[in-house]
Amino acid sequence: MQKIIVPTILLVLIGFILFAGCVQQQPLTETNGTAPEEGNEASPEEINGVTDSKDGQQEETAPEEEKLVEGKTLAERIEILEANLHTAGSGNEAKKYFPDFEEVYVDREHAGFPSEILPFTYYYSKEADITVNICNIGLTVFICPGKIDKLLPESDYSKCQVAEEYLHPENF
């Protein structure tokens, strides 16, 4: 009797082990405790911060650090940009702190403004997701969230940080 029980128990245990290996489980993400969508699962190496290099050696991967420009974080650069709106050198400073600036619009004939400060050039930073207007004499004129690639309508001024001089061209 004992000779039959031991092999039976072993077979049952082996069956449980094999069955447990066949059950597909969705790994939980670290951030929200839910299963990731199909095909977007992180590898165990990515989760643990270890990857294999080309020569087969494992390397530690550091979490992506925030990009510094001129030693400043994005938040610090935006703060400086806002604090120095329409001050001497603010246009060049903006270009220095946002090297990804892309010229997206040029306003050459803005009514009411003297010709020496025209054109107003709109620059977009994808990194910061802001548009900065710089006039011909190198002053920042406004800072708006998002990409503005056409003349900023007066109705949108409230969404932006706008230099007082831009709001009242009659004072020039």
Structure, described:
This protein has 172 residues and is of the alpha+beta class. It folds into two domains: 28-63, no CATH class; 74-171. Helices cover 28% and strands 18% of the residues. It contains five helices and seven strands. It has helices at residues 2-22, 44-48, 74-83, 90-97, 164-167; strands at residues 50-52, 58-60, 102-107, 120-125, 130-134, 140-145, 161-162. The strands form two sheets. A five-stranded antiparallel β-sheet has the order 3-4-5-6-7. Strands 1-2 form a two-stranded antiparallel ribbon. The protein is elongated. Mean pLDDT is 79; it is low at 15-36.
Radius of gyration: 30 Å
**Average pLDDT level:** 79
Query: Care to count the β-strands?
Result: 7
Helix/strand-derived class?
A: alpha+beta
Distance between the termini: 108 Å
Please list the strands of the largest sheet in the order they lie side by side: 3-4-5-6-7
Quick structural overview:
The protein has helices at residues 2-22, 44-48, 74-83, 90-97, 164-167, and strands spanning 50-52, 58-60, 102-107, 120-125, 130-134, 140-145, 161-162. The protein is an alpha+beta fold. Mean pLDDT is 79; it is low at 15-36.
